[in-house]
Design a protein that fits this description.
Helix content is 32%, strand content 27%. The protein is an alpha+beta fold. The protein has 2 domains: 162 residues, Fructose-1,6-Bisphosphatase, Chain A, domain 1; 99 residues, D-Maltodextrin-Binding Protein, domain 2. Strand 7 and strand 8 form a beta hairpin. The mean pLDDT is 93.
Length: 273
């Protein structure tokens, strides 16, 4: 697990730098294309995918990447474990140049996300899971790693990271984080429901899997998602949130999200502390 984690951490950081090389180049054309579902695809998505595959393919564990080939379920269902990757989560935010995009890498086993790495290249925030010092399960960590080569070693990163949730002062408000690009009527209903339960409710918007990580670190109390997402959008953040003591559940059944399903779409879900 330690070697696999090292590969995932290094892959996320290196992919983040490749993304910023394109993002920060004033003369760079993002090379925006449209995929079959009309979602955008850029040169940065492709570059990050190539970089991540350089690190994950040698592990011998199959990879399910948003930008890779999606094998039929008849083959995928034989996989006991797999990498689930979004090389550039928040492509719309990347194109808008608001900095709210991430690199997501997760290792799932028997439908459950275990290892998770989420890197926010513009801010340098790195979230990841790590074997608990007690030897029981996984815990979640956060550290700031500026997106510039050479990066610290994985050992240095782990040694300086802080456990999640971060220690914070008590808040007198219930904080909900919502999608910047996908606000829906159902989300509005959830917000109104919470306003009926809490004296003060604050709503903040963000892009990509940063939203899940904000709940994991304790900066927000809930993230309701009543809009389409895919497994690679959530797997890494889900692993981190669970390891930080949060729940990530189907909004209807209240059961944990499952991965490597026949249909790779997620149901509507809730992330709560």
């Amino acid at each position: 697990m330690k070697k696999i984690q090292t590969q995932a951490l290094t892959a996320a950081l290196e992919a983040g730098r490749d993304i910023l090389d394109i993002y920060e180049n004033p003369g760079q054309d993002f090379g925006i294309e449209r995929k079959a579902d009309n979602s955008p695809l850029t040169l940065a998505d492709k570059a990050a995918h190539r970089r991540i595959m350089q690190y994950l393919e040698p592990t011998g564990i199959p990879v399910l990447s948003e930008e890779g080939k999606h094998l039929p379920y008849e083959e995928r269902q034989q996989w006991k474990e797999l990498w689930i990757v979004d090389p550039l989560d928040g492509t719309k935010e990347f194109i808008k140049k608001n900095g709210e995009f991430t690199v997501n890498i997760a290792l799932a086993r028997e439908g459950k996300p275990l290892l998770g790495v989420v890197y926010v290249p513009v801010k340098g925030d790195l979230y990841f899971t790590f074997p608990s010092p007690t030897g029981e399960g996984l815990c979640a960590r956060k550290v700031n790693v500026p997106c510039m080569r050479p990066f610290p070693t994985p050992e240095e990163i782990i040694a300086t990271a802080q456990p999640l949730p971060l220690l914070q002062q008590e808040r007198d408000e219930f904080v909900i984080v919502a999608s910047r690009s996908h606000m829906s009527p159902e989300t509005e209903e959830y917000v109104q429901l919470m306003r009926g339960r809490h004296e003060r409710v604050k709503l903040i918007s963000s892009g990509s899997s940063i939203k899940i990580c904000l709940v994991a670190e304790g900066a927000a109390d809930a993230y309701p998602r009543y809009a389409p997402t895919m497994e690679w959008d959530t797997a890494a953040g889900d692993a981190i949130a669970r390891a930080a003591g949060c729940t990530v559940v189907d909004a209807d059944t209240r059961l944990p999200l499952q991965y490597n399903k026949e249909d790779l779409h997620n149901p509507w879900f809730l992330v709560e502390r």
